[in-house]
Amino acid sequence: MAFCVALLGTGLMIPAARRGGLIDRAAPGEEFRKPRREPVALVGGMALALAALIGGWPGVGFAPLVDAVQDGGMKAGLPWPPEVLAGGVAFAALLLGLLDDRLGQRETVSPNPQRLLPRCGGLLTTVPARLAAHMILGLGAGLAHGQVFLAEPGSALLWAGAGLLVGVSVATFDHADGLAAGLGALALWAPAPVLAAACLGFVPWNFSWRRRIFKPGTEASAAQQATAGRPPYSEAAPPAYLGNAGSSLLGAWILLTPAAWPALIVPVVDLVRVSHLRMMAGRRPWSGDRCHLGHRLLACGFTPLPVALMCAAATLPAVLTPILRPSSPLFLAGGLAASLGAYVFLLVISPRLAPDGSAE
After folding, report:
1. 240 domain-assigned
2. Using CA atoms, how far apart are residues 171 and 280, in angstroms rounded to an integer?
3. Number of structural domains, the chain?
4. Residue 284: inside a domain
5. Would residue 274 count as lying in a domain?
6. Rounded to whole angstroms, how far apart are CA atoms 176 and 187?
7. Residue 45 sits in which domain range?
8. How many C-beta atoms lie closer than 10 Å to residue 209's C-beta?
9. Which of 163, 134, 165, 169 is nearest to 271 (CA)?
10. Is 294 domain-assigned?
11. Tens-place pLDDT, residues 134-164
12. What would the pLDDT profile of 12-61 be if each residue is shown by its tens digit?
């Protein structure tokens, strides 16, 4: 059911999003990071949320780590049932992402310093505000799992850090078509099948099924021509992106599902690597560029679908090991090491790129 709702819902939302202006555009100075010129609808978050809601989540598929309900009453003073808290965390993540998408696009298309909305958007979309939001969502996820932070202060730090790491790693992994949605489907298919089905329903809309030559003169075109030694081509822009709303919601789902955390080994390591390279170059760790794993594989001449499949294959050992041996930390460590080795292999076979996407 969730798969069908996401598949059909995304298709119906795309025309409305294009008419309403909820589309992806490159801000001034970001053309090197977003070489595509066609508008792409940012409807992934709403489609995933609709599919999860109709599929019955969080009432179905959410299992708190601590039994918060005992003898018909709330245990440890939690104000609401854990399913309500989990739904609230997911809704807050979706709302913040939608706000980020909408305000960011309005400021990019028609900046006006006299308007309150763009000024608020500038405040809410700053890096400190986003990081703080991830940490607050982490605390909410901890509450949903029955943690009482007043009684256990250490758990508050743990869940805030988890919210920050999960949110940022999922958001930055959404740098190429199909990567984040595929990650969600792979990470959630065992612990939360309803959410995994929703991700799978969105995936076909996150790829383009027609080829198009890159616009001449773009960095992506030059990078592919230089590294692949063949005429530069790529898939045309896909019909839909996850957007900030989709990646934020997906991050909240994974955050609320600790059994899915091993799947983050590749996004987290890639985030650490790219942040280190940026700081070594004298840039801020959150500055945009085209140096992520997906960018490097695209520069080899691969199209987005094979890139997404290769990244999913690298994550697969870390996903399978806790399913095959759920109570074996050593087996889990082996799966994480295998995924890390696959990630290193993909780095070795792909070229190093400059921040603008050109080959070094």
Report:
1. yes
2. 22
3. 1
4. no
5. no
6. 18
7. 2-259
8. 10
9. 169
10. no
11. 999 999 999 888 876 666 778 889 999 999 9
12. 999 998 888 888 866 655 655 666 667 788 999 999 999 999 999 988 87
